[in-house]
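does this look right to u?? 2'-deoxycytidine-5'-monophosphate version
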Amino acid sequence: MNESLTIAMDGPAGSGKSSVARRIAEKIGYLFLNSGAMYRAVTLLADRSKIPCTDITNLIELAHDCQIDFTDNGKITLLNGEDVSHLLHTPEIDKAVVEIAKIPEVRRAMVKQQRRIGKDGGIVVEGRDVTTVVFPDAEVKFYIDASVQERAKRRFLELQDKEVVCTVEQIEQEIKTRDETDASRAHSPLRPADDAIIVDTTDKSLNQVVDFIIEQIDAHT
Ligand code: DC
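got this back:
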């Protein structure tokens, strides 16, 4: 495997792209970059600093002044050197991150950090705009998708594991709303890049998707 490729994957919430991207990175010995964790880390910082989602000026300053890094091949997110990985997937962060990720100048700050981490290639990066905006010259691009029903089912099972009380219908509605927000925002909306390979994971296991993607990467190199 060429050591310095950039492999970029975008897709909606619950499409399985994080699990897929992480597994691929492990298999081919590449760095894994979860760009959503960066937006979540800034959101956590805003919450701790008591800056509301409407205070754009201070949010921008916060985003420019913080440093986000990853260790243990993407498993650990460091916010200004502190491991915050276990604090990034709460319902409060889920709700607020959507608003913070809409702010163009916050996005510019995050894109700068993503490019810093990915500057030497040898990386599998996933998010909503990594194939279109962050790494438009990535050698191999994927758009990972699944039906809304399947994504809701996956998320529901995850939440049941955590003993969160909810219904599949509620989750499905939340996912639809999030899809609409991600796809309709003015800056860097979620959309498949023209040269992305579309992968529908609806009826596929993680292993099937990973094998398919590795075949596609091999075919491109
Ligand atoms: O992938 P995720 O659910 O952890 O992403 C968290 C939020 O950040 C989600 O609302 C979409 C947003 N995001 C983004 O706007 N651009 C990215 N490259 C990655 C995530």
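The two ends are 8 Å apart (CA to CA). idk if thats expected tbh
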